[in-house]
Design brief:
The structure holds 2 protein chains of 2 kinds. By secondary structure, chain A is of the alpha/beta class. Chain A is built from 3 helices and 7 strands. Chain A starts with a helix and ends in a 31-residue tail after the last strand. By secondary structure, chain B is α+β, with helices and mostly antiparallel strands. Chain B has helices at residues 55-59, 64-71, 79-93, 100-128, 132-153, 175-198, 201-207, 215-220, 225-229, 237-240, 261-283, 337-343, 345-349, 354-364, 368-372; strands at residues 15-19, 31-37, 40-47, 162-163, 166-167, 304-312, 315-323, 331-335.
């Protein structure tokens, strides 16, 4: 599928989504409350068939936090990047680990480093850092003196 | 008077046991919390972070040339591939075309690294299953590759041989001769690996039908590399999104459909043959020319986002850079193959014995610093 065809069929599913062609991949931005149902469609729709989530990144954009999903279809080999942003004070994004199982660990990582809460995640705990760790270290306003006891 | 022996039925309750962080078959500081009923594994919960160094945070205050040296320390057995991912991302962002010579040398070195990594996997996998001889055979042959690396790159394990724009140094004059000698040597010895372990009845009993993963599951878990290809998931980045000189060489993507531990094992054995094929096609045809293009001492990537995928020895390695036009990246994320492969461990091992968990873990071939980053 070309990027134009991808755009048309995604807009048919979710008219509020914003699609633009980037330098490398097609970019999609969607509101967090629409994301879970769209993700379900992206995987199950036979023409889109984005069945392989190869990367999930948490990002601190300054005024908002966000998550970037890199998706690929293993049948058609088209790639798309999805961006979902969350409020900085109370960042909440629906989990997609029921759709792509690999997201379970990746979402725990994003929670660990950015404090993004993935709603309905089965086991949202820190994955690398200690349970007692204060703050979220990959946020730009993180104060590293919080965890220095010496 | 004889004492009466009372035999009680073993209680059927679940117990939980820690495996690791110091355990020889977790291949590093990985802690697995096992829920057991007798000897059967009910649940595996990996606890990561024992070797977490915050590399993603460190990259935010480092230049791209410095970051290359950090990527060595992720999956140290795929150091070349990880280096190349950063270099390719930087070169693509700055529209730099590296000389053909660089592309070919990078391909050869990466395939050598892949063979060396699979050799180390083979010897540790054999040892996990109780075959100590494998350990010596594998390390003996890997030594030859490390010697080649040492001559050309200056170090044996974490070489940092790539740099943005090309290579740190040109090839050693003996490089071609030694690589050719190695191929002749290893072609003769690889059948010995099969004789020793692949056809071994104990090994087959312990790996066939153990830890089965279907293709759909493998895709969903993002299980890539030889582990994914053992389940029939065609995920070779070298084939689907070629880089370096991979579009100029002929090689097969090794695929198996059984999805069990033995399939993952055989994929790696066959991949060593394919890697030798790739090297043979290139070793006599290294184009003359420069080994690097001149770069500015301070590299600033234009504002934007860049993604680069490469095929490391354990699967798809990815680098995602968000740049704000500074000399440091704004955010850099490493997609490490082992982290995704590890998430499948629970699904793979449920209902198997603890000894099978060791075999399955060995067949996933995890490197802990790559998981923890």
């Amino acid at each position: 599928m070309t990027n134009q065809e991808l755009k048309d069929s995604i807009l048919k599913i979710e008219p509020t989504a914003v699609l633009e062609e980037g330098k490398q991949y097609l970019n999609l931005t969607v509101a967090s409350d629409k994301w879970h149902s769209l993700a379900q469609q992206l995987k199950e729709n036979k023409d889109l068939a984005f069945d392989y989530l190869f990367n999930l990144t948490g990002v601190d954009y300054g005024d908002t936090l966000g998550v970037v999903y890199h998706l690929e279809s293993t049948t058609f080999h088209h790639v798309m990047v999805v961006r979902v942003s969350a409020d900085r004070q109370n960042p909440q994004i629906p989990t997609i680990c029921d759709i792509w199982r690999t997201a379970e660990f990746h979402e725990r990582e994003a929670f660990d480093f950015f404090g993004i809460k993935f709603t309905n995640h089965p086991d949202l705990r820190r994955i690398f850092l200690d349970e007692e760790w204060k703050g979220y270290p990959l946020r730009k306003d993180y104060d590293s003196s919080l965890n220095q006891s010496y | 008077m004889t004492e009466e022996i009372i035999i009680k039925e073993a209680p059927e309750q679940e117990i939980s046991i820690n495996m690791g962080p110091q355990h020889p078959s977790t291949h590093g500081v990985l802690r697995l919390v096992l829920s057991l009923k007798g000897e059967m594994v009910q649940k595996v919960e990996p606890h990561c972070g024992y070797i977490h160094r915050g590399i993603e945070k460190m990259t935010e205050s480092m230049t791209y040339q410095q970051i290359i040296h950090l990527t060595d320390r992720l999956d140290y057995l795929s150091a070349h591939m990880n280096n190349a991912a950063v270099c390719l991302a930087v070169e693509k962002a700055l529209d730099i075309e590296v000389p053909e010579r660089v592309k070919v040398i990078r391909t050869i070195i990466e395939e050598l690294a892949r063979i060396a990594s699979h050799q180390l996997w083979w010897c540790s996998f054999g040892m996990d299953l109780g075959g100590l001889t494998c350990f010596f055979y594998g390390l003996r042959d890997r030594e030859k590759i490390l010697d080649i690396f040492e001559e050309t790159t200056g170090s044996r394990l974490i070489q940092s041989y790539n740099c943005p724009g090309g290579l740190m140094a040109d090839l050693h004059p003996d490089f071609q001769r030694k690589v050719k000698e190695f191929i002749v040597y290893f072609r003769k010895l690889l059948p010995e690996y099969d004789e020793l372990l692949s056809g071994n009845i104990i090994m087959m009993e312990r790996s066939k039908g153990i830890g089965v993963m279907t293709k759909e599951q493998a895709i969903s878990y993002g299980m890539t590399g030889p582990s994914g290809r053992g389940s029939g998931f065609s995920c070779d980045v070298r084939k689907h999104h070629p880089y370096h000189a991979y579009d100029k060489v002929k090689f097969n993507e090794v695929l198996r459909t059984e999805g069990d531990t033995y399939a993952r094992y055989m994929v790696r054995i066959d991949e060593m043959r394919e890697s030798m094929n790739i090297i043979e096609q290139l070793i006599d045809n290294i184009p003359a020319g420069d080994f690097a293009v001149k770069m500015k001492p301070i590299i600033k990537l234009p504002e934007g986002e860049y993604y680069q995928r490469v095929e490391a020895a354990r699967g798809e390695f990815g680098i995602y850079i968000i740049s704000k036009g500074e000399k440091y990246p704004y955010r850099m994320k490493f997609r490490s193959p082992n982290f995704s492969n590890l998430s499948a461990l629970d699904a793979l091992t449920r209902g198997h014995k603890i000894a099978d968990l060791v075999a399955i873990g060995g067949s996933l071939d995890y490197v802990i610093p790559d998981i923890d980053r």
